Amino acid sequence: MTKQEQTAGTILKTARNQQGRSMQQVADEVGITKSLLGAWELDQVAQPDPSRLTRLAGVLGIEANQLLKAAGYELDAALPTMKPYLRSKYKHLPPEARAEIQSAFDRISAKYGSSPDGSGPLDGQDE
Question: Which of 10, 44, 83, 121 has its CA 20 to 30 A from that of 97?
Answer without folding.
Answer: 121
